[in-house]
């Protein structure tokens, strides 16, 4: 049973918050990041340089950030949800304009150790904004079609901006996360069916708007052997690496595909392939199992929260992590086209690490503040 | 806020989370089954592909087999070839390093440019050849200067070398770079710098000489850089080919023929078909081909009227002239149309219809018998004989002696010659055969063509009456080549004896046509037959005013001088044929060459008949 906390108590002491912290989730996140660092050590041929050491540093910073966010009262996120989403959209516009002017396709803002990609930030703020919106609606209200216009705007404004970049992978995740949140909010299922049907019929139109390299990726996905030295090379080499890993793998730092550089982008998007080659099916299932535990923790936190905002935030963040993992693994194993989605916590790269740690921090905050309740209709100043 | 309303939202939320959970479980299930498929079901296939990726098999060029004469004297060997190699990545500024190198050893502008071009096209760690054939001095200069030449290394390779230069060029041949059309699927041919036999034995026995490539298996990365060597299979060096030639005899023959502008000789064994010497003069230095021939040298070889690149002994086709007469005589004797006592009166000419055929001796030979017809090479005798025998019998006899088809000697480029008969005339000219043509054929003129090798084979078959065939390969890696046990041809001994007597008189009778070419050493006497083949047509007008002497004609209009011979006369073993292009009289020019070769051959005695 839940530890009962008086919901009228506006703040918790730091000590209490630390006691309420979901240490299991913290441990899982640390373990997965540790595995990631070990794989980066192997990817560099048994060197901490250049990837592992920096990834560990980033994790350290992200870890502190995660704990700090965990301590932040969930009501603060509720209060600033729209503003944060607004800022994210504003930054998306900024990098878009900057990219257009500067000719260079730089889609991030440099923060030193991290590079902040507004599109990554938008994945979190979208969850917050949608959660706040649906927090204020009853089940009956959710049934009214016009009510769904504002959340659709919250989803498709950033999706549109991200597509302009162009970043098909992130746009897909934003759409899927937004859709999942609306599903969890009680939007009627038949409406999704309509959307799905409409979406499928819109595919040819979308195809027309796709860039050549994106079309190429789809072609390559459909037939990797079509161009084994060009676009199909990555996926072909990735499959070879998985297959040669077999059941138990070729051993730590012994994957010939990765160590001899046949596998491209082995430290970023294709790090799961390196895992598969060196640790085999046992290794890949183990890491997938750890992520499954993270998902179970996430949904457990969502289901245990007392107010709709918290539930939706926890559910949205968890589904976000799922989509990351699913798309990355499906991509490197050749189930879907290569869309450039890294594996959270494991792939080398500051942005993904930062986003995941922020998301986990908010998830932990939901966990700590699961008993907190705010009325459906409230004034921001009252928080 | 209504608790009920929130409860309904929570209920819906839980249900929807359950729905999403189920979808996610399905998604993860799909991933797990995909991973199972890749990592367990298809594992073997991908493991093989990964090995293919990882392991780079590099071929090691096998050492080309040696070619030696019958006693093991090397005729084609491999010499060390020092090459300067450059590695772009270790050189830093390659152009600067090469310029420095050019100051130490000679390096042409073209070599420099090619090196830079090659280097820029290959990965930075791959060595490219800067210069080949460095001398010892150049090697030591470069070794000393090594600190100033980063990225430059000396590599030792093999280069084909022919120590006798031109003496064996037409037999041994030479090697050269592999051309597109020569790629036969053997991967070793694709090795840079690999040489393949282009002519002669080098080409005929290329497969055996080539050997089998070794293999070095190396682990490489995606860029092709070698990480380590896994194992190596040294391959099989090429076989050593031992030829039937006697290097000393061949060399002697080369020097002897060099006295003429253009000539060819063959000396062979009448019992087992071993070819002891086969010379086509002038020759060329095959070493210029392996080192890379210059345009000037190539031009000179091509424009020389004595065609040094052609092996005239097997590819030159000449009218055999009077050397053909034994065929006509044998055709008459074997067919029973004449016997040994047959005689013809020679008034110096022979009338056929309204055409008069002349004997080479204007005044005529008087009454000529069978053996004497050879001794004097009386044309009229053969005009009469051939008219009785007919072209088809003559042609059949000539074919039994090896004319009209390649001898099958183990050399590329042999030509078949021509023996005309009625069918041949009809097939080629669609005209009936005329008697005049029979008369011309009877003295080895007209359509009759043969190679010097065919003449040598005829001489050998005349010597012992065996169907001997010539060959050059004695053994491959000490495994003796199959040499036929040549059967008797079935020529009646008494008929052969008539020919022998006649050929003996040619050189040993003071009135024979080649008395000057006799061998005087006791027991080494030879028998032979002269021949002079006209290469121009003598007009009626010229015959009226007197035929212009060969000495007064330009070189390329003079008669070819021919001679066939075998020795020793009383126990034949060695056969010889010689042609001297535009040499004039067979007895005066070609005969002495055969004499010198057969004398030298008998003194060296490669068949070992004298020790028995």
Largest sheet, strands/sense/barrel of chain B: 7 strands, mixed
Output the CATH topology of the largest domain in chain B: Beta-lactamase
Shape of chain B: elongated
Please identify the oligomeric state.
heterodimer
Distance between the termini of chain A: 27 Å
Summarize the amount of helix of chain B as a percent range.
Answer: 25-40%
Along the chain, the helix and strand elements of chain A come as HHHHEEHHHHHHHHHHH
Helix content of chain A: 55-70%
**Low-pLDDT segments, ≥5 res of chain B:** none
**What integer is the average pLDDT of chain B?**
89
**What is the tally of beta strands of chain A?**
2
The count of helical stretches of chain A stands at: 15
Count of DSSP H/I helices of chain B? 23
Short description:
The complex is a heterodimer of chains A (383) and B (612). Chain A has 383 residues and is an all-alpha fold.
Description of the molecule:
The complex is a heterodimer of chains A (383) and B (612). Chain A is an all-alpha fold and 383 residues long. Chain A has one domain. Chain A has helices at residues 14-20, 23-43, 52-71, 74-102, 118-135, 139-142, 149-164, 168-185, 189-209, 212-222, 233-245, 256-259, 271-304, 308-332, 350-368, and strands at residues 109-111, 114-116. In chain A, β1 and β2 (114-116) form a beta hairpin. Chain A is globular and about 60 Å long. With 612 residues, chain B is an alpha+beta fold. In chain B, the strands form six sheets. In chain B, strands 2, 3, 4, 5, 10, 17 and 18 form a seven-stranded mixed beta sheet that branches. The radius of gyration of chain B is 36 Å and the shape is elongated. The model of chain B has no long low-confidence stretch (mean pLDDT 89). Chains A and B meet through α8, α11, α12, α13 and α14 of A and α1 and α2 of B.
């Amino acid at each position: 049973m839940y530890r009962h906390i008086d919901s009228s108590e506006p703040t918790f002491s730091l000590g209490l918050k630390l006691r309420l912290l979901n240490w299991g989730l913290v441990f899982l996140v640390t373990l997965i990041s540790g595995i990631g660092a070990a794989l980066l050590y192997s990817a560099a041929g048994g060197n901490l340089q250049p990837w592992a050491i920096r990834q560990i540093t980033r994790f350290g910073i992200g870890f502190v950030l995660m704990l700090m966010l965990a301590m932040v009262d969930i009501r603060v996120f509720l209060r600033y949800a729209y503003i944060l989403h607004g800022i994210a959209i504003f930054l998306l516009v900024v990098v878009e304009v900057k990219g257009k002017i500067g000719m260079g396709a730089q889609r991030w803002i440099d923060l030193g150790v991290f590079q902040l990609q507004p599109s990554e930030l938008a994945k979190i703020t979208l969850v917050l904004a949608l959660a706040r919106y649906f927090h204020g609606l009853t089940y009956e209200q959710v049934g009214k079609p016009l009510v769904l216009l504002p959340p659709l705007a919250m989803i498709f404004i950033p999706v549109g901006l991200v597509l302009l970049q162009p970043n098909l992978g992130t746009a897909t995740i934003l759409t899927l996360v937004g859709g999942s949140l609306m599903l969890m909010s009680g939007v009627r299922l038949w409406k999704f069916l309509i959307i799905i049907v409409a979406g499928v019929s819109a595919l040819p139109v979308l195809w027309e708007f796709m860039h050549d390299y994106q079309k190429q990726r789809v072609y390559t996905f459909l037939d990797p052997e079509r161009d084994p030295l060009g676009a199909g090379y990555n996926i072909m080499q990735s499959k070879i690496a998985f297959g040669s890993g077999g059941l138990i793998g070729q051993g730590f730092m012994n994957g010939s595909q990765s160590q001899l550089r046949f596998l491209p982008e082995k430290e970023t998007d294709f790090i799961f392939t390196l895992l598969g080659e060196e640790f085999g099916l046992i290794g890949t299932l183990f890491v997938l199992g750890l992520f499954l535990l993270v998902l179970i923790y996430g949904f457990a936190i969502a289901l245990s929260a007392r107010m709709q905002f918290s539930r939706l935030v926890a559910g949205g963040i968890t589904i976000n992590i799922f989509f990351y993992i699913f798309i990355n693994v499906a991509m490197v194993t050749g189930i879907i086209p290569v869309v450039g989605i890294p594996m959270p916590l494991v792939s080398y790269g500051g942005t993904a690490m930062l986003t995941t740690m922020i998301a986990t921090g908010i998830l932990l905050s939901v966990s700590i503040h699961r008993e907190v309740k705010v009325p459906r209709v409230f004034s921001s100043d009252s928080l | 806020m209504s608790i009920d309303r929130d409860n309904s939202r929570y209920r819906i939320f839980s249900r929807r989370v359950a729905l999403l959970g189920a979808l996610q479980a399905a998604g993860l299930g799909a991933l797990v089954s995909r991973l199972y498929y890749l990592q367990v079901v298809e594992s073997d296939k991908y493991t093989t592909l990964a090995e293919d990726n990882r392991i780079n098999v590099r071929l090691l060029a096998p050492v080309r087999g040696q070619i030696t004469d019958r006693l093991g004297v090397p005729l084609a060997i491999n010499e060390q070839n020092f090459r300067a190699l450059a590695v772009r990545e270790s050189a830093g500024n390659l152009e600067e390093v090469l310029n420095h190198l050019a100051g130490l050893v000679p390096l042409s502008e073209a070599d420099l440019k090619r090196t830079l071009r090659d280097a820029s096209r290959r990965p930075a760690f791959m060595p490219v050849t800067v210069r080949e054939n460095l001398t010892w001095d150049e090697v030591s200069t470069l070794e000393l200067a090594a600190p100033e030449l980063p990225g430059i290394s000396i590599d030792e390779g093999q280069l084909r070398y022919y120590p006798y230069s031109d003496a064996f060029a037409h037999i041994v041949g030479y090697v050269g770079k592999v051309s597109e059309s020569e790629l036969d699927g053997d991967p070793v041919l694709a090795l840079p710098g690999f040489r393949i036999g282009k002519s002669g034995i080098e080409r005929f026995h290329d497969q055996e000489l080539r050997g089998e490539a070794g293999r070095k298996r190396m682990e490489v990365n995606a860029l092709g850089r070698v990480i380590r060597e896994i194992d190596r299979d040294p391959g099989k060096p090429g076989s050593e080919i031992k030829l039937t030639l006697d290097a000393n005899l061949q060399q002697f023959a080369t020097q002897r023929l060099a006295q003429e502008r253009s000539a060819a000789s063959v000396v062979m064994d009448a019992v087992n078909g071993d070819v002891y010497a086969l010379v086509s003069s002038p020759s060329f230095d095959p070493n210029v081909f392996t080192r890379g021939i210059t345009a000037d040298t190539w031009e000179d070889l091509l424009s020389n009227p004595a065609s040094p690149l052609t092996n005239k002994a097997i590819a030159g086709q000449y009218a055999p002239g009077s050397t053909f007469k034994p065929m006509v005589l044998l055709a008459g004797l074997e067919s029973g149309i004449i016997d040994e006592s047959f005689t013809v009166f020679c008034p110096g000419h022979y009338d056929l219809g309204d055409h008069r055929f002349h004997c080479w001796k204007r005044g005529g030979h008087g009454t000529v018998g069978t053996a004497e017809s050879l001794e004097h090479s009386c044309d009229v005798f053969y005009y009469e004989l051939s008219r009785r025998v007919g072209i088809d019998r003559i042609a059949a006899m000539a074919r039994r002696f090896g004319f009209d088809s390649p001898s099958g000697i183990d050399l590329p480029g042999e030509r078949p010659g021509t023996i005309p008969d009625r069918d041949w005339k009809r097939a080629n000219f669609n005209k009936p055969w005329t008697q005049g043509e029979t008369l011309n054929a009877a003295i080895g003129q007209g359509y009759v063509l043969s190679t010097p090798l065919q003449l040598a084979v005829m001489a050998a078959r005349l010597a012992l009456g065996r169907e001997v065939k010539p060959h050059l390969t004695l053994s491959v890696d000490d495994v003796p080549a199959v040499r036929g046990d040549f059967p008797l041809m079935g020529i009646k001994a008494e008929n052969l004896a008539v020919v022998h007597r006649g050929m003996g008189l040619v050189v040993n009778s003071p009135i024979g046509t080649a008395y000057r070419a006799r061998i005087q050493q006791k027991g080494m006497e030879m028998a032979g037959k002269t021949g002079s083949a006209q290469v121009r047509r003598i007009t009626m007008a010229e015959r009226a005013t007197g035929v212009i002497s060969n000495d007064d004609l330009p070189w390329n209009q003079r008669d070819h001088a021919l001679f066939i011979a075998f020795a020793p006369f009383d126990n034949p073993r060695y056969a010889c044929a010689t042609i001297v292009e535009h040499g004039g009289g067979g007895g005066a020019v070609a005969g002495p060459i055969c004499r010198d070769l057969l004398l030298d051959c008998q003194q060296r005695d490669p068949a070992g008949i004298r020790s028995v």
